[in-house]
């Protein structure tokens, strides 16, 4: 079984309520003031909980951003693991790789700045999350199916590297459109 984002041990009812308060407060801050204004002490004040409560759950802004992204990550995973083709099973491997990359770009288009916080504000966060490992393993499987003679692990890393949120945000801020980025991936896959 592959890791699913957010899976883990059950939590106490009071801890679950506090987690929801914290995430709702953080989401309000991001929606009204932007990702740049996401600060753990402000989230605590907005949520009506102590700062220590926030820090016990989320050690830094990156971990809090990951918490905010959990539901969207679960939806993304469900789409490529069991959704309709070509993103989900049932299409040829090359088509699934293309669909995965395009769906990832779409996700970056809507969540890029928050993903950037999640990936950059916790040391090595991008590479140690269950989500990244799942994305990597998914691509390794598809690449191996499409071309068993290539180094699938290297190719998966090479395809995921330009999907780093900081890279994507940089490209978009410098005039590259999402469609241009998708076209670039299509050209890499040829």
Automatic annotation (TrEMBL):
Residues 16-76 form the HTH tetR-type domain. GO terms for molecular function: DNA-binding transcription factor activity; transcription cis-regulatory region binding. InterPro entries: Homeodomain-like_sf, HTH-type_TetR-like_transc_reg, HTH_TetR, Tet_transcr_reg_TetR-rel_C_sf. Residues 39-58 bind DNA. Keywords: DNA-binding. This is TetR family transcriptional regulator. It comes from Kibdelosporangium phytohabitans. The lineage of its organism: Bacteria, Bacillati, Actinomycetota, Actinomycetes, Pseudonocardiales.
């Amino acid at each position: 079984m592959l890791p699913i984002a957010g899976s883990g041990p059950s939590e106490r009812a009071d801890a679950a309520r506090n987690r929801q308060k914290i995430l709702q407060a953080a989401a309000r801050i991001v929606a009204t003031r932007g990702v740049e204004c996401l600060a753990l002490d402000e989230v605590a004040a907005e949520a009506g909980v102590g700062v220590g409560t926030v820090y016990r759950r989320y050690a830094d802004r990156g971990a809090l951003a990951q918490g905010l992204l959990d539901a969207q990550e679960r939806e993304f995973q469900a789409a490529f693991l069991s959704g309709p083709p070509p993103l989900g099973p049932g299409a040829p491997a090359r088509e699934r790789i293309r669909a995965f990359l395009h769906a990832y770009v779409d996700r970056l288009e809507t969540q890029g700045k928050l993903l950037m916080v999640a990936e950059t504000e916790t040391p090595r966060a991008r590479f140690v999350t269950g989500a990244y490992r799942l994305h990597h393993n998914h691509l390794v499987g598809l690449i191996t199916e499409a071309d068993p003679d290539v180094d699938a692990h290297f190719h998966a890393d090479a395809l995921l590297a330009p999907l780093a949120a900081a890279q994507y945000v940089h490209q978009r801020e410098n005039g590259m459109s999402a469609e241009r980025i998708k076209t670039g991936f299509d050209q890499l896959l040829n």
